[in-house]
Write a structure and sequence with these properties.
The chain is an alpha+beta fold. The chain is built from 4 helices and 8 strands, in the order βββαααββββαβ. It has a 5-stranded mixed β-sheet with strand order 4-3-2-1-8. The protein has a 3-stranded antiparallel β-sheet with strand order 5-6-7. Helix 1 packs antiparallel against helix 4 (about 135-155) and helix 2 (about 65-80) packs across helix 4. The radius of gyration is 16 Å and the shape is globular. The relative contact order is 0.23.
Length: about 180
């Protein structure tokens, strides 16, 4: 079985937070990270991702605001067409080793550019513990969609623009093969 990365976001009404679950590895040897995301952090994250997407597009070409919005929507649709939102999140059934039990409370986001259109997203606690994800633009668009859908499902009122596409209330989990 190929190495896989799966992401699932669940709303916990008692905590009033989103639980971000990330599993990676093969079914026989996988690890799962669990992270709490607050409303404030989700707003910061979505704004940072939107700025990153705009900066990447603006660095490639000069675009009018209308063309920039059209390119963002096109890029998002292309990325979401590649994502697998139908496969069940399987970390529970294969017994992945847990990192972050109880889940880590994320309070900081750091983004660093790597080579070939990849970025490192560091999701960190106030003590700088956390997870470093190497992500492509496709995964960035998918993760953004999952967060927006989770915010809507949680019925949070977020002071950020949720537009880019017409996100709907799909199940917030995704699987990527590497």
């Amino acid at each position: 079985m190929a190495e896989t990365l799966q992401i699932k976001i669940e709303f916990n009404s008692i905590e009033d937070r989103l639980l971000l679950r990330i599993s990676e590895g093969k079914s026989q040897a996988c690890v799962e990270y669990r992270l709490w995301l607050t409303r404030r952090f989700v707003g910061v994250f979505i704004k940072a991702v939107d700025k990153l997407i705009e900066d990447v597009l603006a660095s490639d070409m000069q675009l009018s605001p209308e063309a920039l919005e059209a390119m963002k929507k096109f890029q998002q649709e292309a990325a979401l067409a590649k994502a697998d939102f139908s496969t069940s999140y399987n970390a529970d059934t294969v017994g992945c080793a847990l990192i972050g039990e109880p889940p880590l409370l994320v309070s900081k986001l750091k983004i660093k550019k790597k080579a070939k259109g990849r970025y490192v997203f560091s999701l960190l606690t106030s003590e700088n513990a956390g997870v470093h994800l190497t992500v492509s633009m496709d995964l960035i668009h998918s993760l953004r969609k999952m967060l927006v859908d989770s915010v809507r499902n949680a019925e949070w009122i977020q002071p950020v623009s949720l537009a880019v596409g017409q996100e709907d209330k799909t199940t917030a989990h995704v699987r990527f093969a590497s």
